[in-house]
Amino acid sequence: MDSKRLTDISYSVLDLATIAEGRTPADTFRNSLEIARLAEQLGYKRYWFAEHHNMINVASSATSVLIGFIAAGTSSIRVGSGGIMLPNHAPLIVAEQFGTLASLYPDRIDLGLGRAPGSDQLTAKEIRGEDFYAQHHFPQDVEKLQLFFSEDNSTGSVRAIPGEGLDIPIWILGSSTDSARLAAAMGLPYAFASHFAPTQFLSAIDLYRRNFRPSAHLKEPYVMACVNVVAADTDDEAMRLFTSLQQFFIGVISGKRQLLQPPVDSMDGIWNIYEEEAVNQMLGYAFIGGTKKLKKDLQDFVNKTGVDEVMATSHIFSHEARMRSFQLFAEVFK
């Protein structure tokens, strides 16, 4: 694997539309637009939202609506889903929604697809109704989406209008080796959720590269890693801001979610030893610090993984501090 410099790497944003304590979803959406505009100015390649449901602190449930909102308020950055959870949707509906987005914002829309429900089982049942009990066929549904987007379907009895004939890049998202096999077999770009599922990351991207079959969409394997980033003017300040993310992940592992909390001087008394261990394991790929530390840590990461693109997700309580973090993160790649 050829070693890459950070200047060779594309950098992007994953936004979960996290709601901070004392704020509303409307505040979150306004902040997202401001960050997307900043990201566009700073050379970020993409701005993605992730579909989640029934989470008090995450407002990105209507993912395609948010993609349209951000695309309308920007002019060049790619906007997309990281991802749309395909078990929740009929492929035709996804094709029509993203066909509409791609018609409104040509050459700017990405469609990342996940095979999980993005919610708990009770919520998934509410979304899918009786279909909840049916076996879900993720690979076949991805193929069906590709068919709806193709010009070859112009004689089909069911067509995606708009959507048909549009070049909308499809990405396979994953947090395990299962998705790596599918992305490789279909010759599609692969985005790994190393920001919360670091365990199988290295084995998954290795499996993807070894089994990759070139396709009309992609000639060589392309790996994007999503990682947690908290950048600040000093390492100490970044570590303090990081405590909001640590508190957020206590909610992930315990199921007791709360709005994004302000940073604290110490996590002592907030988590127990088991929560601390579990959170630290999930946050194995978190890049915390000033630009000097980030540059070293990210270069080590790229040397080890050979990724083509890094997508940053940043749960930072203060909107101004989050803006600053994305500004500093971009500087690392210059």
From TrEMBL:
InterPro entries assigned: Bact_Lucif_Oxidored, CmoO-like, Luciferase-like_dom, Luciferase-like_sf
CDD domains associated with the record: Flavin_utilizing_monoxygenases
Pfam families named among the record's database cross-references: Bac_luciferase (PF00296)
Domain Luciferase-like positions: 14-276
A Gene Ontology cellular-component term: cytosol
GO molecular function, one term: oxidoreductase activity, acting on paired donors, with incorporation or reduction of molecular oxygen
Sequence similarity: To bacterial alkanal monooxygenase alpha and beta chains.
The protein's name: Luciferase-like monooxygenase
Originating species: Arcticibacter tournemirensis
